[in-house]
Amino acid sequence: MSRLRRLFGREILAETILVHGKDQPIGDAFIQSRFFHELRCLYPNAHITFAVSLGGSAYANSLKSVMAPYLDEVLTHQGLSLDRRALSPLSPRPLAGRRFDLVIDLEKVWWQTLILRRVRHGGFVSASKHFLFSDCWPRDWRKPEHLSEQYLMLLDALGTAKKVDLPPPDFRCPERMAQAATLLPPGPKYVGLVPGAGDRGKCWPLERYFAVARALIAGGLTPVFLLGPAEADLVPIVRASFESPLLPAWILQADGSATFHPAFSSPLMTVAVGRHLCAAVTNDCGMAHMLAAANTPLLTLFGYTNPKKYMPLSSISEVISARHYGTIQPEAIPVEDVLPRIERLVRQYS
């Protein structure tokens, strides 16, 4: 494929497409869903394959039904771009020599991109090194701030017109919605609190979440603590700090023990719970993106990560960054600045 294709406006045709990502944390799965939706609108009849080099993908299990209209094949644990030795022309080609009309790389590490470029292809698109290894270029070279827009920049480089206008992924599951309604029955105004994260360095201090929870209770609101299996250590602390706290993802026993609710093994359950919240306070974490998919009014607290790049894609979203206070430590964010934001979200959108 020639880079002059863009200049002459020739359309890129593809019946088989490979999209590659190094890994896919759950938050990325929600962010990338927009990319795959737009890709399918460009190529409604193509066979689209998503390959993950490291680990699994929610698209292969918990989000498979949601993403099925946009993906034909999901390959996990492929190890395509993890070993520099695969750069050697003497090493076997990735994916056992399969060929694709179009290969799109979501990553930007140059040597990993060059490994992926060894997949047999008709055309190749990558933003690595400012599209140095790409066969076509975007119309605008300015790098978008948000990660989702950076993915869409790859599609812009294709210069292909949208063929169909498909509905976006719908993460609302009727079965999960019914379950959520039993966990958070109508009546109270619920406000979600997400004090955990896969990287604890992103977390606002737990005692400050507790201070917010007490202020919510004093104001007639009901805090809901959303904790995943990685935050099992926080469950007894929450139970010891509040009388009958709401922990919908946990089955609480009278003897003080707790087990993770099996329904929450699917992120669609968290989305369903988010539909019952009038607002939520969260760290920069995967659960923030699940709540964004529920269109929960969100206040996201950022430490060292960049809010302009990772802000949840909710239509009702606010952020407070530690950078506003001259640091990247989340504990720099005071409770006094969080409470008015939550009150405003509840007042405006409940």
Task: Provide a brief overview of the structure.
By secondary structure, the chain is an alpha/beta fold.
List the helices and strands and how they pair.
Blueprint: H1 5-8, E1 16-21, H2 26-42, E2 47-52, H3 64-67, E3 73-75, E4 99-105, H4 110-116, E5 120-126, H5 147-158, H6 174-183, E6 190-194, H7 206-218, E7 222-225, H8 235-241, E8 250-252, E9 258-260, H9 267-274, E10 277-283, H10 286-293, E11 298-302, H11 307-310, E12 317-321, H12 335-349
Parallel strand pairs: 1-2, 1-4, 2-3, 4-5, 6-7, 6-10, 10-11, 11-12
Antiparallel strand pairs: 8-9
Helix pairs in contact: 2-5, 2-10, 6-9, 9-10
What does this structure look like?
The chain is α/β, with parallel strands linked by helices and 350 residues long. The chain has 2 domains: 5-158, Glycogen Phosphorylase B (Rossmann fold, 3-Layer(aba) Sandwich), CATH 3.40.50; 174-349, Rossmann fold (3-Layer(aba) Sandwich), CATH 3.40.50. Helix content is 31%, strand content 17%. It has 12 helices and 12 strands. The chain has a 5-stranded parallel beta sheet with strand order 3-2-1-4-5, covered by helices on one side. Strands 7-6-10-11-12 form a 5-stranded parallel beta sheet, with helices on both faces. A two-stranded antiparallel sheet has the order 8-9. Helix 2 (26-42) packs parallel to helix 5, helix 2 crosses helix 10 and helix 9 packs across helix 10 (286-293). It is elongated and about 65 Å long. The chain starts with a helix and ends with a helix. The model is unreliable at 4-9 (pLDDT under 50).
